[in-house]
Amino acid sequence: MKRAVRVALLRLYRAGVLVGLFAGIQMILAAEASRSDRPITLREVQRHLPDAVRITTSAGDSRMRLLVSESGRQIGSALRTSPRADDIIGYTGPSDVLIVLDESERVVAAELRSSGDTEGHVASVIADEAFWAQWPGRNAEDIAEDPSIDAVSGASKTSRAIGLAIRKRLRLEQDLAAAEPLTWRWSDLWIGAVAILGLFAHRMGRLRVWFRWIAFITLAIVTGDLLALSLLAGWAEHGFPWRQAIGLVVLGAVAFGTPLLRGRSPYCADICPMGLAQSFATACARRIPHIPRWQPRPDTLAHWLPSLVPGLLLVTAGLALAWILPLDLADLEAFDAVSWPDASHIAIGLAIGGVLLSLVIPKAYCRFGCPTGALIELVRTPRNAARWRWRDTVAGVCLIAVWVMAPARSIVESWIARGPW
């Protein structure tokens, strides 16, 4: 009975820490977003309608800007998808798109103003001229009623979310229902199936190897969808993309819910492509003679590295989010390497180095360098090991720090602004 109570209390504490971290990050990033909000400017509009000399506010919609020529005639209007379509999330966040219409309500141009999505995916969408060419020349009402979107290969979630945001904003302008229905695409079905089957992978026997290959091909090659700090930070700020990426949300629920409630981590053991690649490398190394094996001794510093290095990376990510440091969270991990044409050299190097090290050190990257894995390990609560760990203390301190950082950041910024410099 006492053990059951201890387990329940530990699970409650660890779940509370995770939820508290998410809520704290959301508070910090939401405050930053409100400070950096940019209204539509005349210079932006003049790139597409050079005759516009003044912007006025629509009487019916304060968020729509009417474009006026030098003679005083209305020659068009301008809309932005944010904030009214901010509930449409791509991979990690929504995008703000400028939509310029002429006087007959035909789209002159659609242009990305800013995005909360990953930098690599956003860059791919910006560079795809065919994607942006699917709206100019079309009537706003036709776009509002047309559900088809030509997404960008390799950045399908980001580009589809941008298209849905444009459609929703125009539907609002046409007084049409703006809610997008919950849709399951084939990629969501594959990811969801892998996530659910991963719950039973430890009971599959010899079929477990085949399941791992299916999971690797599905997530690393076919969809390119993995859990990562950048993804989780985007969810913390903007919410879960359960309408646009329900399969990925199910994967996240399995990755964090199962360790918390069952004490096992099916995502790290049987689903994550980076972990599986290392397992494959270790299995191959065992067949090759004369390859050394290395295990850290309990009385050395290396014994603490599996907890120390990922923990430091988590703290670095927290500081980057809280103080808006110029740091791309994707560069702290190897997972972006699955989208190698758009991935940074750091992510690719971490992925290759992690797999090569696994020839000598089993699951080297998972054990010594994965902050997402450390976050999952934070909530893992085995039923037969209900004890307080040192990382629980560190997690509590980090939770307090996150909630202190937001007001502290405002105080520091105000002090700098009032200073003599």
N-to-C series of helices and strands: HHEEEEEHHHHHHHHHHHHHHH
First-residue to last-residue Cα separation: 63 Å
Content of β-strand = 5-15%
Helix vs. strand class: alpha+beta
Could you report the average pLDDT, rounded to the nearest whole number? 80
Our Rg estimate from Cα atoms comes to 24 Å
Low-confidence parts lasting 5 or more residues at pLDDT below 50?
none
Within the largest sheet, what's the order of strands?
Answer: 1-2-3-4-5
Shape: globular
Biggest sheet, in brief? 5 strands, antiparallel
Write the layout of secondary structure elements.
Layout (H helix, E strand, L loop, with lengths): L1 H34 L6 H5 L7 E4 L7 E4 L5 E7 L14 E8 L4 E9 L3 H9 L1 H4 L7 H6 L10 H18 L12 H13 L8 H17 L5 H10 L7 H17 L3 H6 L1 H14 L18 H18 L22 H13 L6 H5 L2 H9 L10 H29 L3
Antiparallel strand pairs: 1-2, 2-3, 3-4, 4-5
Helix pairs in contact: 1-9, 1-17, 7-8, 7-10, 8-12, 12-14, 13-16, 13-17
Keywords:
421 residues; alpha+beta; five-stranded antiparallel β-sheet
Characterization of this structure:
This protein is α+β, with helices and mostly antiparallel strands. Helices cover 54% and strands 8% of the residues. It has helices spanning 2-35, 42-46, 119-127, 129-132, 140-145, 156-173, 186-198, 207-223, 229-238, 246-262, 266-271, 273-286, 305-322, 345-357, 364-368, 371-379, 390-418, and strands at residues 54-57, 65-68, 74-80, 95-102, 107-115. Strands 1-2-3-4-5 form a five-stranded antiparallel β-sheet, with helices on one face. Helix 1 (2-35) packs across helix 9 (229-238), helix 7 (186-198) runs antiparallel to helix 8 and helix 13 packs across helix 16. The mean pLDDT is 80.
